[in-house]
Amino acid sequence: MVIIMIEANIGDIIKVETKKGVFKGILLPSTEEEIITIKMDNGYNVGILKENIKNMEIIAKGEKPKYELPPLNIKKNEKLKTISILSTGGTVASKVDYKTGAVHPSFTADDLIRAVPELLDIANIKGRAIMNILSENMKPEYWKKIAEEIKKEIEEGADGVVIAHGTDTMGYTASALSFMVKADVPIILVGAQRSSDRPSSDAALNLISAVLAAREPIKGVYVVMHGESGDTFCYLHKGVKVRKCHSSRRDAFKSINDIPVAKIDPFTKEVIYLQEVEKSDNSRNAEINTNLEEKVALIKIYPGMDGEIIKYYVDNGYKGIVLEGTGLGHAPEYIFEDIKYAIDKGVVVVMTTQTINGRVNMNVYSNGRELQKLGVIGCEDMLPEVALVKLMYLLGNYDVEEVKKLINENLVGEIEYRSRFDTY
Q1: What are the residue numbers of the active site?
Q2: Residue 325: CATH number of its domain
Q3: pLDDT tens-place string over residues 22-39
Q4: How much is the pTM?
């Protein structure tokens, strides 16, 4: 029998008895109705399914967290560049009430500086939230909004823009902005693998490093995250060459088929470039193109798959399909007719590889050659998610024949025509 003490409020200290043991801690807000979340004495949060609770009692009443603080009234330092930090959600600089452990999503310049005061020595900070979503809920329409807000910040005098973003889909957003935004300032996406209410949080170091990168005399879209599991340095990655490669490690983000652009030391404030990068000409120009064809699908190839899924997308009006093929870019012969059906209906079908590292080469084996005869186009060394976003962008701006020509042209650094030996 489940017994829930409905009078328990956020901040109360509670004891929860479950089938797996007894948990004691501070009651936190929860994003799911069927789960309660508590902060235990060891500093970690635990989520408990209500259906598994045998008994729950209040040990002590707590206070609801209060976040109202007086403004800092910090004067602009004319010697420093101005960096705009836009929050889309996530935990990079969320405020934490350490009495209750509750995380507050407010995101102003004052919030940022209170959370990470080291930023004052690096740049003049502007900060605001443009949305507040979990990154798994990201949509193409939100990419458009982010692009518009970036343009606005640059037009209002920002020397660089940092986008605070949840890590789960940050690679997709970085890729989308790479195609949609042409700006003469650095645009840096940054996230945190560990939330700011945990002792092992990487939020502050990542944010400092992102602001350091945003004041560099470069342009383009990049991602900044921990370079190794300890708190020593961060890497600057190209937005179209980066992927989250681990679910929880702080150094989860890796450059794929490429090396990082730079190594950033947040302690010495040094940015060490590892490869050439496009320099800014100090014009602060910003142009955006938010035309995207959202009816593009990404389909993973696997043994025994049913090719009807391809027909489903075609019959529902999809204009493009990215296949995440095996090996050098292969698919089972028993779905060839379904692929042909898509291509005959005018759908652009392109091929990437699920091996992550390496490139597609559909000329090596007969399977790849037959797919090319059907009209499938190989995507060189593009990541599947990058190919997805690029196909959305191309189909939103060009006719089908031009799309087929441009898919394998290197537009924003998404393709390396020669594979490096030092990237795996």
Answers
A1: 91, 167-168, 244
A2: 3.40.50.40
A3: 999 888 877 667 888 888
A4: 0.84
